[in-house]
Amino acid sequence: MKLIHALSAAAVLAFASSSAFAAGDPDAGQKVFLKCAACHKIGPGAKNGVGPSLNGIAGRKSGQSEGFTYSDANKNSGITWDEATFKEYITAPQKKVPGTKMTFPGLPAEGDRDNVWAYISQFKADGSK
């Protein structure tokens, strides 16, 4: 019985480790985010620009960043940002939300999408990590 518990614990740890790895690398994501930074700000003191501030994006509904004027497409998309939805969106924004104002062509590399999500999702609504 102890062996079964030990194996179960080892399996849980292995899964947790692989899940953390699969989530991406925030440091690499910070570099990828440079492609986004012309329009989007993040971190302490971030303000809306050409695009909305991305502070607190995880769990936020699309079209809901205070003080930013969204397209009707984004406001009415019904999206709540989570990892899977963000990665689908950032692959090809115009395909995911036809009519969005976001003209960015997307991030075709899965690793870049993983890493940028790992980076931006660590920021709370107030810009702190």
From TrEMBL:
Its keywords, alphabetically, are: Electron transport, Heme, Iron, Metal-binding, Transport
Superkingdom of this entry's organism? Bacteria
- Family annotation (SUPFAM superfamilies): Cytochrome c (SSF46626)
- Regions that span the bilayer: none
> Metal-binding among the record's keywords?
yes
GO molecular function, one example? Answer: metal ion binding
Checking Gene3D superfamilies in the record gives: Cytochrome c-like domain
Cite the PANTHER family for this sequence: CYTOCHROME C (PTHR11961)
Spell out the protein name for this chain: Cytochrome c family protein
Q: Which organism is it from?
A: Rhodoblastus sphagnicola
